[in-house]
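Sharing in case it's useful to others searching the archive later.

Someone asked me privately for the predicted structure of alkaline phosphatase, so I'm posting the question and my answer publicly. Question first, with the sequence:
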Amino acid sequence: MDNYFIAQTVNGRISVDVDGRPVGAIGEALKSQGYKIGLVVTTSVFHANPAVWYSHANNRGSQDSIAKQMVLF
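And my answer, the predicted structure tokens:
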């Protein structure tokens, strides 16, 4: 996970910086290291907390985009 860093963002966004550019999602970092990833949640997998593992969105309400990113992850 050497290439990942903390970036300032805005409330309501998922894994994007203040300018709307994608930053490393947690799952991307682990996947790049060869880890297999599974999520167990008690909410929707499109909710912001699990979505930060695999997606990028300028609006956390963009559930269609988040769902597509999950499938393609």
